[in-house]
Amino acid sequence: MNVLNIGRAAVGAVMGLVGLVLALPAVAVLLPVWWVDLLVRLFRRLLEPKPVSWEELIEFAPVVGWKPKANLSAHALDFNREAYFVTTDASGWRGKGTVEEADVVVFGDSYAFGCGVDDDAFFADLPGDVRIKAIGSPAYSLVHSLLWMESLATDLRDKLVVWFVYHGNDLADNVHPAFNEYRSPFVRIVDGTDDWELVSRHVDPSPWTINSREGGMEAFIEICSQTPQSRRAFAACDYLIQRGRDVCERAGARLVLMSIPDLSPLAGLALERALKKSDAGSQFDAQVPDRELAAICTRAAVPFVALKDHMDSADYLVRDFHWSPRGHRKVARVIREIHADKGDMKEASENGARRAG
Amino acid sequence: MFRVPTRPLLKSFWLAASVTAGVLIAAALWWFDVHRAVLWGAAAFAVFSAIGLTWPGIALRPYETWKRLARKARRAARLWLTGVVFVILTVVGWLGGRLSLRSPVPPQSGWIRKSNLPESDHAGDAGLALTADATAGWSRRFGEWALRSGNAWAWSLIPLLALLKGVEGEDRGSLGGNVYTLY
Description:
The complex is a heterodimer of chains A (about 350) and B (about 180).
Chain A: H1 3-47, H2 54-57, E1 58-61, E2 65-68, E3 73-77, E4 83-87, E5 104-108, H3 110-113, E6 132-136, H4 142-151, E7 160-166, H5 170-173, E8 178-179, E9 182-183, E10 186-189, E11 196-199, H6 217-223, H7 228-251, E12 254-260, H8 265-277, H9 288-300, E13 304-306, H10 325-340, H11 346-356
Parallel strand pairs in A: 5-6, 5-7, 7-12, 12-13
Antiparallel strand pairs in A: 1-2, 3-4, 8-9, 10-11
Chain B: H1 7-31, H2 37-54, H3 60-96, H4 138-148, H5 158-167
Helix pairs in contact in B: 1-2, 3-5
């Protein structure tokens, strides 16, 4: 070390001490912040359950791609990374009871799975005289629901089948061969014809490496506008709903289609921002999904219920775009009312016809 | 990503506030020689925490206010500490620097004889063991670098840099555009 370095080290040492004295006001300001931060971290460690990741929640299933794991008792994370308590039965479906015991079987995606709420708030497990069983998993599309409907058809006799259609991403995902890296069954037009076919040959546990799925707000805006994507999405729905109707008819079950709008404050904010950026934003019409689905249901003679007529933004979580416990209670009540109609779904059909008209 | 306070976070914040309130009440009572000051403090903690654990929603507004105040306190402290660091750098550079900022007076010249730089002049992080977490052990790495490069004076910055690191808080949330991507 030369003289200059020693000199600088000496000056540095003195200035270091001066700096520490000068830093005292900042330390005084920071002390309460550190104290509260420390206590919050300590209590969070005690209070927060250890959640499982998405990968621990699901497992590979042939043909459909994935399903929730069986006999699960764990805390999953919602969009806000807040844990909610989930249990699944021996088949991997959430909630108590079985398909055989149920009066109503609900098919759907994360809404049918009850994402975001604990078991005691889950619509299928709320106390009531109608037994509801939900067959659903996060990230399912109508294609998954149809495949499960076909697979469980023998257990659906004399039951009410409610098919959830979520506007947010179900309509777009029906025509995509993968959900991110997970291979997914989908529908496509048969080359050179106007016919559609369901494809699941590509579904295996290996990751899908070419992901064409958009899955975001942009895809939703395209579907709610006069775009080729919109026409394709509803043509796919038409095919799927007719096929679902045939499955239920053969099984002796009563099918009702229930559309799920996204009225959550979270989605409202995201939509507002996406509309400003979108090319299709000027043609955006939020009524398109319900109008198109009602028209399809009228043609297929399937009763249609738009949950938009029964719910508002307070029925959705603030921290996530799924239903709040209040929303789950409302959905359970609507399902019970439909079940009470016992085959007379005239009103729902008329509503559908009105919407289609 | 859009975030709102989770229920465990609100409960934890309320409990932290209850502990603080309990400690302050106990200290104040002890100062005024009130009998069983600690018990009163513990009772205050029990009552406050029971309220927050039963209705975690009531903690939302106090939590948001606290977060705002904490953010302002952090920003002010960061600014102050950065200023102190710059004062040290200026003084050390001014009193102990090798760089001459004065223009040469003839017959002096600004030209210097061409030579290789000494090893210590280009000592960097190269050769130091890197851990999985880039921020872990930063003070040791910084200290090693200072010694190897002949800048031992820079050790005096370590306490201040540590304080600056302690100022770092949570980032302000933003709303993701693709909220449907995962469902």
